[in-house]
Specification:
The structure is a single chain. The chain is α+β, with helices and mostly antiparallel strands and 86 residues long. It has a single domain, classed as K homology (KH) domain (GMP Synthetase, Chain A, domain 3, 2-Layer Sandwich), CATH 3.30.300.20. It contains 3 helices and 3 strands.
């Protein structure tokens, strides 16, 4: 089921981001759960996190409900953008 969960997160994040082409979502999972990793453009970090974390926590709440229905665990991790020091 990780692909379905990954696709849902990708759709949500891309709809929020100003730079949707830079959104990269990767999922790793087994029978017990899924861990979803999200990379966005540095300019989109604040937009995806939202005020006081409201947006990212809302996405996590949706995933928590989905995980409950599937009797598994889904964790979402928003990764820090790479810093280019060149």
């Amino acid at each position: 089921m990780p692909q379905k969960d990954r696709d849902l997160v990708e759709t949500i994040i891309k709809s929020i981001a100003d730079f949707p082409d830079e959104v990269v979502v990767r999922a790793e999972g087994d029978d017990m759960g899924v861990r979803i990793y999200v990379n966005v453009a540095p300019e989109d970090m604040g937009r995806v996190i939202g005020p006081k974390g409201a947006i990212i926590n809302g996405i996590r709440s949706v995933l928590k409900a989905l995980a409950f229905k599937q009797n598994m665990s889904i964790k979402l991790e928003l990764l820090e953008p790479a810093v280019n020091n060149a």
